[in-house]
Amino acid sequence: MERPIAPSHPQPDLRLAHRMLGLLAAWHALFWVLAPMLVYRSLPLDTLELLGWGQAWEWGYYKHPPLGAWLGEAVFQASGGWLPSLYLLAQGCVLLCGLYVWRLARLVVDPVRAALAVLLLEGAYAYTWLTPNFNMNLLQLPAWAGFSYHLLRALSGTPRHWLWAGVWGAACLLSKYSGLLLLASTLALLLVDPRARTAWRTPWFYAGCLLGASLLIPHALWLLDHWRLPLAYLQSFDAGPKTAVSHLEEPLRFLVGSLAGLTVTGLLTLTLRDRGAERPQLRLPLVWVTVLLFGPLLLSCLYGAFSGSRMKSTWAFPFFNLAGLWLCAVLPMDVSQRRLRRFATTLGVTALAIGGLHLAYKLGADKSKTGFDGRALAERVEACWGAKTQRPLHIVAGDHILTSYVNGYATTRPWVWINADSEIAPWVTRDRLRSLGAVRVCRVDGPCANPAGFDWQPACTVKVDAQSFEVSWFAPDSAGAPPSSSQR
């Protein structure tokens, strides 16, 4: 256990800092759960998509590793099928991340700055605006923070924490493949920094590596047969032709887009900055925090410069867990009670402003996927299928968006047959198709997957939120409409 620094005089500012932490946790547990429950008409698409995958309990999926899908499905089932439970899960990830960041910061700086290391993250885009959306990016927040904390505990003289570092390291990779960036940065630190190199001389380090590797074995075996699927997904972002400029433009765009999410955090820091104040005495080397913070970002930019590939700035979601701590460690700050009170006021206004803008956007944006009535689409598709077969709906084909809406809100939770492709949705087998039949949902005048050997019959056209959708079907064998000979 880390020991708090004994104050030499009473510190009301510490009580205020901890009070702010408690209020911030309550704000996330209440506002960022209740607001989407009351305002969103559908769960975020990424969350619904994970439920569609998790229903099958596979060792891997065509886009990502399995941990997010498993966890989402487990919480959904444990809540009795209550979809808003995924909002609770999302904020649980945020709060667990904050707890780990605070514990890690206590290892490096004094208790007041450790609290500020968490509070400053409230200005970051990834820790507020995007948090109702439980997806692989959000799951990385606690995974990266947990790994970083136990890594520093192990490096600072408590080697048994290598076991926990191994567990959280596996969680980083099982949540998203970009976890490799954090592990690669850690490896560089262990090779280059003399103080970190002592890890190679303790058996706990190898025990932690072995534990983490053992947790990865099932997914690694899955990847041996399916590695082309996530690779194809990554390459799908390179829609346009690459040019010589792409190798400079893409990493620069990614860098600027990633750091832009910290703009408000930077402004919050200005309320505490004081050039006349002393910098804090650090209890652990600053280089350890710096490598964990900037290493993944640097490696991402190097990958972009080498490949010229297009990268989404949201991929940097978990990179900045330690941004608040790094700022508190390198900048002279006034943490007196008077200055903290001013910071508390600014932070409160910021949290309310971000929450208000989020609600205004969700209520007024026509293109927001959470504004689409996914429940109405599912009900009408189910009714259309029922009118044809008088049977429950068990399989829905279509793109990943429409199948996710139907899967999430239909009463039978039909299996998602994404793009009518059983390679990326292997749980939809030919035997299952023959025995259960399927329905296909496509946008009118839009692309519609039509695998060879299937004779889709028109069923109906449904309209939801001024959008029209074509629904077609083929019947199960027992309904008197067998599939074509090529399926037998």
Q: What proportion of the residues is helical, as a percent range? A: 55-70%
Overall average residue pLDDT = 92
The Rg value, from CA coordinates, equals 25 Å
Instruction: Give the helix/strand class.
Output: alpha/beta
Low-confidence stretches: 1-12, 480-488
Main pleated-sheet profile: 5 strands, mixed
Strand content: 5-15%
Number of helical regions: 18
Distance between the termini: 63 Å
Strands of the largest sheet, in order across it? 2-1-3-5-4
Number of E-state strands:
5
Element-level helix/strand string: HHHHHHHHHHHHHHHHEHEHEEE
How many distinct folded domains?
Answer: 2
Question: If you had to describe this structure to a student in words, what would you say it looks like?
Answer:
It is globular, with a radius of gyration of 25 Å. The chain has 488 residues and is of the alpha/beta class. It has helices spanning 12-39, 45-54, 67-78, 85-108, 111-119, 136-155, 161-175, 179-192, 203-226, 228-235, 246-260, 263-270, 286-307, 323-330, 337-364, 374-389, 400-409, 430-436, and strands at 395-398, 415-418, 438-443, 457-464, 467-474.
